[in-house]
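Collaborator request, handled under Task 6.
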Amino acid sequence: MPIKQVKTEKLKLKSSSQKLKVVKKSVVKSVQKVKGLKIEVLDLKGKVIENMDLPKEIFGAKINKVLLAQAVRVYLANQRKGTHSTKTRGEVEGSTAKIYRQKGTGRARHGSKRAPIFVKGGIVFGPKPRDYSLKLPKKMRRLALFSSLTAKRDEGKIIVLSGLEKIEAKTNKMADVVKNLKLEEKNKKILLVTPDTINACENVYKAGRNLKGVNIISAKMLNTYEVLNAKTLLFMKTSIEVLQNTFLNPPLHKALEDKGEN
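Structure tokens returned to the collaborator:
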């Protein structure tokens, strides 16, 4: 066999072996990512009782920092009421008569005493009621939420609790749970995510509403700002399923419409 052919075959073997190594590394990384989506489920005493899988689409999404900043900006803008108002010289109370004659007084010429340069006069270019609200497309809102949840998961700031729905409606009971989870900090910011509205989780709401540093929100109402603003996310076990059904699975009436079963 010629020397050139031997060299080319060796090069081919090296390139193929390198490709295999790259493929193996990518497979290992993907397996590690899938394994990393498992999380421990704790009881009210802070002990591990089981492991559960988190939805990969929600807690394993790509983190987009630009989208997160945009979602936070839109959320904060939508919180502004825009009801502030000031009076112009045409709205302020006072006479419209000329203060004194135009000439011969030696003073500057003036008309109405409601002019902005006088005390109790009108305001120039003051704020008026306006709409500060901004809009973000639904897909972008969801991707921003998934990015924020993924970031919190990477930081290890997500805790899943089981049995919280059986808690008594007493603040000291919720304080004991926070203490058992070792979240008792001076400046703690805990976001408790419930599977349903406040009326359905009345005991949980009553137990945590007066506890400093604890905010309660339904999984259906979860948003990017609340997730990023909290130091720790405390999920009730059933709220993970509600989160998945709300933001991933299509509503039932739409599925029936697609099948033609109205």
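The cover message to the collaborator said: "Confidence is low (pLDDT under 50) at residues 22-35. The radius of gyration is 31 Å. Please let us know whether this matches your experimental observations."
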